[in-house]
Amino acid sequence: MNIYFCGSIRGGRQDVAIYQQIVTCLKSYGTVLTEHVAFPELELVEKNLNDAEILERDMQWLSKAQVVVAEVTQPSLGVGFEIARAITLNKPVLCLFRPSSGQRLSALIRGSANNRSFFVGNYEQRDDFEKFIQDFMGYCSQKRTV
Ligand SMILES: O=c1[nH]c(=O)n([C@H]2C[C@H](O)[C@@H](COP(=O)(O)O)O2)cc1CO
């Protein structure tokens, strides 16, 4: 299973430690194509690419992905863009949001939840997002076999 993980980069890196925990969990289900999003030293990875090259690479990964998981607490234009593209490409999407952050999730994201191809999970603890991911991956694998 190819997994595309989205998390804020230029939108703000305050949740990078949580992205690492999420990526660790996702790796037990398949290949995380965008593992760099969780790297604290991300600039080193991206420094040889210009913005157009980053977009091109990411969109290729997105088309190769079977599922998309996005941490959406820290608002990010890039993450919103990736989610919109994923919807257009008919990829199942799980968004993870932490209400205790004090942020309010965009209506355009929460309003997209349909419990079929687009899910939004409110989490606080690691256990919570692990359960959302487990249920989402189980659901997506079942759909792929029918
Ligand atoms: O250097 C980058 N590398 C990269 O892969 N991205 C992608 C992956 C992230 O899920 C998303 C973050 O967007 P933003 O930088 O607008 O917060 O965009 C974004 C940037 C910088 O915008």
TrEMBL record:
Establish whether keyword Lyase is in the entry: no
Q: Where does substrate bind?
A: 4-10, 19, 82, 106-108
GO biological-process terms attached to the record:
deoxyribonucleoside monophosphate catabolic process; nucleoside metabolic process; purine nucleotide metabolic process
- Which reactions are catalysed by this chain? a purine 2'-deoxyribonucleoside 5'-phosphate + H2O = a purine nucleobase + 2-deoxy-D-ribose 5-phosphate; a pyrimidine 2'-deoxyribonucleoside 5'-phosphate + H2O = a pyrimidine nucleobase + 2-deoxy-D-ribose 5-phosphate; 5-hydroxymethyl-dUMP + H2O = 5-hydroxymethyluracil + 2-deoxy-D-ribose 5-phosphate
Q: What is its main location?
A: cytoplasm
Which Pfam families does the record match to this protein?
Answer: Nuc_deoxyrib_tr (PF05014)
Write out the entry's keywords from A to Z: Cytoplasm, Glycosidase, Hydrolase, Nucleotide metabolism, Nucleus
- Subcellular localization, per the record? Cytoplasm; Nucleus
- Gene Ontology MF term list: 5-hydroxymethyl-dUMP N-hydrolase activity; identical protein binding
Q: Which Gene3D superfamilies match?
A: 3.40.50.450
Signal peptide feature range: none
Enzyme Commission code(s) on record: 3.2.2.-
Tell me where on the tree of life, at the top rank, the source sits: Eukaryota
Coiled-coil positions are none
Q: Which residues cross the membrane?
A: none
One GO CC term of this entry? Answer: cytoplasm
Q: What does this protein do?
A: Catalyzes the cleavage of the N-glycosidic bond of deoxyribonucleoside 5'-monophosphates to yield deoxyribose 5-phosphate and a purine or pyrimidine base.
What family classification does the UniProt entry report for this protein? Belongs to the 2'-deoxynucleoside 5'-phosphate N-hydrolase 1 family.
Q: How does it assemble?
A: Monomer and homodimer.
HAMAP family tied to this protein: Nuc_phosphate_hydrolase
Entries under PANTHER family matching the protein: 2'-DEOXYNUCLEOSIDE 5'-PHOSPHATE N-HYDROLASE 1 (PTHR15364:SF0)
Query: What is the name of this protein?
Result: Putative 2'-deoxynucleoside 5'-phosphate N-hydrolase 1
Its source organism is Rotaria sordida
